[in-house]
Amino acid sequence: MNTRTDALATATEAAFQAEELARRTESAARSIDNRHQTEPLARAGALWADVARAYAAIAAALPADDAGER
What we know:
70 residues; mainly alpha
């Protein structure tokens, strides 16, 4: 990865992963049979959210890929 666009793409994918894990965490929390999965799913979602924030910060620090991007 060496461009702002790459960093933004990685941040976006990580955000999608975090969102999916948040949905799975909520579902597990509502289920008696799957409640034991809530904490591990929430921790994994939090890690993906951290990755998304990190790559978004990297993207913000990188110069624009071309003259049209700001």
